[in-house]
């Protein structure tokens, strides 16, 4: 790549000044293209332009790049205009490309490096729509120089426009044979480009963080001279995806012709596996990419045979058929084509049936009607004569389910009266309500059985009721950590919706199930569809604004990062860098060991392990976390920038480290001759957290950080004085702590105001809560609701066990091991009276362990607030206690 650096740097094609430099006066003059364009006489104008096209490849003129830039704009805006194609533009462009490839010195002179790119782009633009222009281009000899660019003779930027132009030429009947003369070369080059382009673009452009090391002409072509680094990377990502999609488009032209040479190359197992990972992404969502080529291969016997022998391709098609992707029908169509072929049916049936059985209730998919009926007919094709060819119970069970649903039950319900059908619907609804009750009580397995029972009763014609039951089953399977069953049930629910893939709850549940299986692409598609359903439902209510659930936004951000087209290339580069770091570390440690072998025997191993841990767990290290506790109200790109700015401020000391999980105090005070800090919650993380907070506060002169001034030299009297607030007095074992304690209950507004208002040497006191409140008193109440002692749980627990007198005096030292020491006979009476399971008191609880855990002063965290902010991995604390108590009662463990 360094060989593409230019020899001189005159004006660029983006500074299109017509002023000639002194250097151009010594060059051979040629007809001025821009003068010819301004000629009013049409005959003279055409003759002049034709002369320009003939002379341009023969002479050297730094103004040529300006002419090519102008022609590029004209071709983009007027691709159907026959003027330039009739005057020899294709011959001129072909000669310029050939000259750029063969004459390296000319290519690297002035701005000539841009000319091959513009020339190939102009050819592709003019051949995009008009077959007549494509025929003229082929006759002008554009194919050989385009193949040179496609082979990578210059760079990936030129490969992009070359494969675009060749794809247009191969798409016309009149010009395909001309391209097919180079069939072996074209197919191999396109296959290689489709498989490697993403890694090449990342390594040579996107992965180069130092923009000064990127080729300047690449940057100018990508961002057209405008935009920042983020836009530049985004455009490069779009271009990389286009290279891959256009390469597949070129291969499609050969696959459609059933040419044996091309099919044998395309059906190689390695390339078929690569096709499974090729998709247009969100950038080129109109391209079917890899699965589009797989579908074309399925129309040929050679293609079907090769695909049937590739388990990964079959699995990819199955996952696609059960997704919300726009190309879902391609996955279904490919599986049906394989099942209809007697030579491939029994090779793929045991896998395909597990996916297609969930789609038999699908009515229509886009403009394709009766999709479910077609699937049913194909699955039951030769059913009675082919049982011996199936691989046992794994296939026979879902196939028998299809027979029962689509044959036996359909015939049975046709004979039922309307009254009987309504009775069955009501009965199914009652069973569903029982399942809902079981689910609320935490009896997930029992709820799952109830929903299955309701499905067996509910008639097939009541699609909405069956949709809800399947969706509820999916939720139960999610809670039981059974993602495969959750995907199956939610897919069936989505097939039963009025319009396919529009039931929001099922979409979200399937998205979570796919996430559990690590299938980021499918999870992303379902999350986006779920978000669209939320937007549509909000739009139906004119009074409400559009609300996107926070958990959906988090899921989309997570999966977009996982499905980033450069993720594999980035991982490869990081792994390579990690190996280099490990090797350098080994060499360094070996040198240290040779210099001093005494007392350093374990240093090498410890240092290396720590380095590997830093590389492998970099997302968990301080300052590198990608998970935050509150959502940003901006897009993903802005989230990254905010996180980076927050990390930089943290390193500079602008923001203090967070105190225990439920409170955060942001220190941004005015700094005078003496500066004072303020901290909250000092008893948790006593030995580490508060000392680090006091030590990390900025010293005198920090105020100038906002203006970019250099920090002044700190003095001894310019340190922070940090006050700590806690409900309990300071512990005796920590008397040398640098924090000044204030005994105060911040959950009590009056106590907080009275204790803190007397501090005259504090610059500012910030009362901070999760959400804004108009007054400090209300903020204190909000914090109090989060930090309060769990005394409010006493009446809840007492009510569950029927206890009237409860609670203990605060400050008293109680040990459960002492209280329960002689209570064995009492427990035996309770067991006998309440008919509980025969257990001993020692089996019910390990009291010494309870004393060990509960005897210390630790904060009891309520996760209710976290759940409201989208952290759905936690249950409501109060409801969770009640649920587990009810569950233990049902199991006859407690009265």
Descriptors:
895 residues; mainly alpha; Serine Threonine Protein Phosphatase 5, Tetratricopeptide repeat; 3-stranded parallel β-sheet; two-stranded antiparallel ribbon; 43 helices; Protein unc-45 homolog B; repeat
In angstroms, what separates the terminal alpha carbons? 77 Å
According to DSSP, the number of beta strands is: 5
Strand order of the largest sheet: 3-4-5
Number of helices: 43
CATH class of the domain at 354-562: Mainly Alpha
Please outline the major beta sheet: 3 strands, parallel
Give average pLDDT, whole number: 77
In the CATH hierarchy, the third-tier topology of the domain at 354-562 is known as Serine Threonine Protein Phosphatase 5, Tetratricopeptide repeat
Gyration radius over CA:
36 Å
| Poorly predicted runs | 6-30, 595-637, 649-718, 763-771
- As a percent range, the share of strand residues is under 5%
Name given to the CATH architecture of the domain at 354-562: Alpha Horseshoe
CATH superfamily grouping of the domain at 354-562: Tetratricopeptide repeat domain
Based on secondary structure, the structural category is: mainly alpha
- Quaternary: single chain
Report helical residue fraction: 55-70%
Offer a quick outline of the entry:
By secondary structure, the chain is mainly α. Helix content is 59%, strand content 2%. Strand 1 and strand 2 (368-369) form a beta hairpin.
